[in-house]
Amino acid sequence: MTDFTIYPAIDVREGRVVRLLKGDYNKETRYPDDPLTVAREYAEGGATWLHLVDLDAARAGDYTLVPLLRQIVAETGLSVQTGGGVRGKEDVAEVLEAGASRVVLGSLAVREPETVASWIEEFGPERITVAFDTRAGEDGSWVLPTSGWTADSETDLAALLSHYARSGLAHALCTDIGRDGTLSGPNLNLYTFLTRAVPDVAVQASGGARHAADVRSVRKVGCAGVILGKALLEDKLTITEAIAEERQ
After folding, report:
1. Where does 77-187 have alpha helices with state H?
2. Where is the active site (predicted)?
3. CB atoms within 10 A of CB 37
4. One digit per residue, pLDDT tens: the chain, 248 residues?
5. pTM of the predicted model, to two decimals?
6. Angle, nearest 10°, between helix axes 113-123 and 89-97?
7. How far apart are CA 14 and CA 76, in angstroms?
8. Where are the domains of the chain?
9. Pair 20, 243: CB distance under 8 Å
């Protein structure tokens, strides 16, 4: 797998660009620029993709960012993968119709794998990204929280990933919640495991990336892309620097 993609991330809550610390809604940092302005800056810096998250809907359901999604696609030319609160097939169709290149499915993909596998077949593997948001359990296993990371599933990450790989999954996003928003570096052990377990699935690393060296490290272990959020918003890494790594 030679292609590598930078996915600058915009998480939206109450219309504002925010970042949560380790998925905790009570530990939120808000940023001054509106989401469309940030998206424009990323496009101008050379990004071709954007990762857009509806944090309000991730917890409560009912994706709310269709108007913003339409604006971003129309005004920036970015390809957008987006999710949060997507609960039914009609939601997937609506988000794709609004201009998304891929719909991200997280909690539902953990709770109802057969349903989501059927959508991968119906909409096509290039239109769906399954998000495996995970944290280390006390026994060393990888726990899969749901509902905006507020409740834990009993589903095993390795088993679920293998199920989706057999179902034709092409794109998987895996966030180490323990590193999300911490700027502590990506969990290379996790991504090494994932890329070896499902070599035909394009794995996107998420959580902890700080600088260009982190981008290089996840690429080296076989990831097909990396989500960059706080590092870009707080100027630890510029979008231009990140895109330069993408083009190596």
Report:
1. 89-97, 107-111, 113-123, 157-166
2. 11, 133
3. 11
4. 458 999 999 999 999 999 988 778 888 899 989 999 999 999 999 999 999 999 998 887 789 999 999 999 999 999 999 999 899 999 999 999 999 999 999 888 988 999 999 999 999 999 999 998 887 766 667 777 655 555 555 677 888 898 999 999 999 999 888 888 889 999 999 999 899 999 999 999 999 999 999 999 999 999 999 999 999 999 999 999 999 998 87
5. 0.92
6. 40
7. 22
8. 5-246
9. no
Q: How far apart are CA 109 and CA 164, in angstroms?
A: 9
- Residues that are catalytic: 11, 133
Q: Which amino acid is at 177?
A: I
**Apex CA 108: angle with CA 223 and CA 97, to 5°?**
80
CATH topology of domain 5-246: TIM Barrel (3.20.20)
CA distance linking residue 145 with residue 132, whole number of Å = 9
Q: Which of 227, 172, 248 is nearest to 49 (CA)?
A: 227
Is residue 159 helix, strand or coil?
helix
Q: What angle do CA 115, 206, 114 make, to 5 degrees?
A: 10
Residue 51's φ and ψ, nearest 5 degrees, are -105, 110
Structure tokens at 195: 């890329």
21 vs 68: CA distance, rounded Å: 24
SS3 10: strand
What's the start-to-end Cα distance of the chain, in Å? 14
